[in-house]
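Hey, I was hoping to borrow your eyes for a little while. There's a protein on my desk that I can't quite get my head around. The fold is given in discrete form, as structure tokens running alongside the sequence. I'd be grateful if you could look everything over and explain what you see. Here's the protein in full, and shout if anything looks odd to you:
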Amino acid sequence: MLHDRLLVRETPEKGERRSSAGLVIPETVKMATRLVWGEVCGAGTGARHVKTGDRVLFNPEDQHEVELQAERYLVLRERDVHAIASEHPTQGTGLYL
């Protein structure tokens, strides 16, 4: 990857969800545009905060799709990432916003 570009594999959502009130929301329901999580598979040399292996939160509308070896990936700019998840936070929530 070049400059601040990231190669991301989108993490699929798990079927149905539950609302905070406990209502089951089926997988087929189309909700407003939601941010999605993905795993960074490659990062350009200009990416300052994101590295390969990070889990990132991004808007699926801000991406370009590419297929490599029969697998679907997304190409994003680092500035299009809204949060980075950390598995072992030293303090706080583990999300860098």
